[in-house]
Specification:
The chain is mainly β. Helix content is 4%, strand content 40%.
């Protein structure tokens, strides 16, 4: 197959009441700070990641002197509001300035707050000596920002208010289930790359990565991707321009440049490297080097921009003639001849994240058939 490319929450809850510094904590012991602190980027360019660590995917970047909307701090990472979604930046490259007050205890993200009194005053400060600025009624849900002593700080009609916690019931709600939580075929896999499409005929794909941490699945990255020109294959065949569906292990990482930092076995591509796609060759669906010397009549050149970085999807490991060859995850943004592709930045991010000790797998499927896994 020739794969030359044609072209290569909290936020809603906190709303305007959350000025930089106040936020929530979950199980990772995040700390919230006073709203009078300003946070500015000190690096010329700073990556924004989907989680608190360099092993998480990059979802964007911020630049020097940019002011950040910091929600909380977890270890050496700031949790921020980034373009309407949650992101994380290293605190080593962020300068906090301003006067701080005593930290308050923020609420858990998965908690619902409901008024239990028939009528409850909303005050301008955390105490009965502060003026009432309005009221809430029994059964009303509150947008709680943080807790200070026996008072909840809330978002009240677009401004900050305080209510007594004696008349508010906080109840934990189950975290939303991830799609991988329902999968039954993952075995000992602790990392999953999920590639989905709306149907068999589309070349556009959604790429998500998940990792099991302390026995619980967490989403790491979401990105746009592309499939074969004709979408997913019902039954993959050599040269059909379709990407195979199924669950596969992950093979060798590769690239035309030095190892970008992946833990996978890495092979640097040379000008002589090819992947044999001649179904009649005994070397069908294997990585070889030129010259052919009669060993094959057709092979794909590996030294192309699409393969600047990528990894082998272990498809057709039995090397059944005509079932399909050279199925990779690589660089590209238009369509492929049977591989899966995304931007170079995302490919590198995924390569750095993948850990063979966690038995990673890749699942490719139309959304309607995810119940197979």
């Amino acid at each position: 197959m020739k794969k030359l490319m044609v072209g290569m929450a909290l936020t809603a809850t906190l709303a305007t009441a959350v000025t930089p510094g106040f936020g929530s904590i979950g199980g990772n012991q995040e700390k919230a700070y006073a709203a009078t602190v300003t946070y500015k980027v000190t690096a010329s360019k700073l990556n924004v990641r989907s989680g608190a660590g360099t092993n998480y995917g990059i979802i964007g970047s911020v630049v020097k002197d940019q002011t950040l909307s910091v929600v909380s701090k977890s270890g050496s990472w700031y949790k921020i509001n980034y373009n309407g979604r949650t992101g994380y930046v290293s605190s080593d490259y962020v300068q906090a300035s301003g006067t701080t007050t005593a930290p308050t205890t923020p609420p858990a993200e998965s908690t619902t707050y409901t008024v239990t009194a028939s009528t409850l005053n909303v005050r301008s400060g955390a105490g009965t000596n502060y003026a009432s600025i309005g009221s809430v009624t029994k059964g009303q849900k509150l947008s709680v920002v943080s807790k200070s002593g026996s008072w909840y700080k809330i978002n009240y009609n677009g401004r900050t208010g305080y209510v007594s916690s004696d008349y508010v019931q906080a109840s934990a709600t189950a975290s939303p289930k991830l799609v991988v939580d329902s999968f039954k075929t993952l075995g000992n896999a602790q990392q999953v790359i999920l590639v989905t499409a709306d149907n068999y005929d589309t070349k556009s794909a959604k790429i998500q990565t998940f990792e099991k941490v302390d026995g619980k699945w967490k989403q790491v990255l979401t990105a746009n991707g592309v499939l074969g020109q004709k979408g997913f294959a019902l039954a993959k065949k050599e040269g059909d321009m379709e990407s195979p569906t199924g669950k596969y292990t992950i093979g060798t990482a590769f690239g035309r440049y030095a190892n970008p930092g992946t833990k996978l076995p890495y092979r640097k591509i040379t000008s002589n490297d090819v992947w044999v796609d001649d179904s009649k060759s005994s070397l069908y669906n294997t990585w070889q080097q030129k010259p052919a010397n009669g060993r094959w009549t057709s092979a794909e050149n590996m030294d192309i921009p699409a393969y600047d970085y990528g990894f082998v999807i272990n498809y057709n490991e039995s090397r059944t003639p005509g079932k399909g060859s050279a199925i990779f995850f690589h660089v590209g943004t238009n369509y492929t001849a049977g591989c899966t592709a995304t931007s170079k930045e995302q490919v590198v991010s995924i390569l750095k994240w993948l850990n063979p000790e966690k038995n990673p797998v890749i699942i490719q499927s139309p959304v309607s058939e995810l119940d197979k896994y």
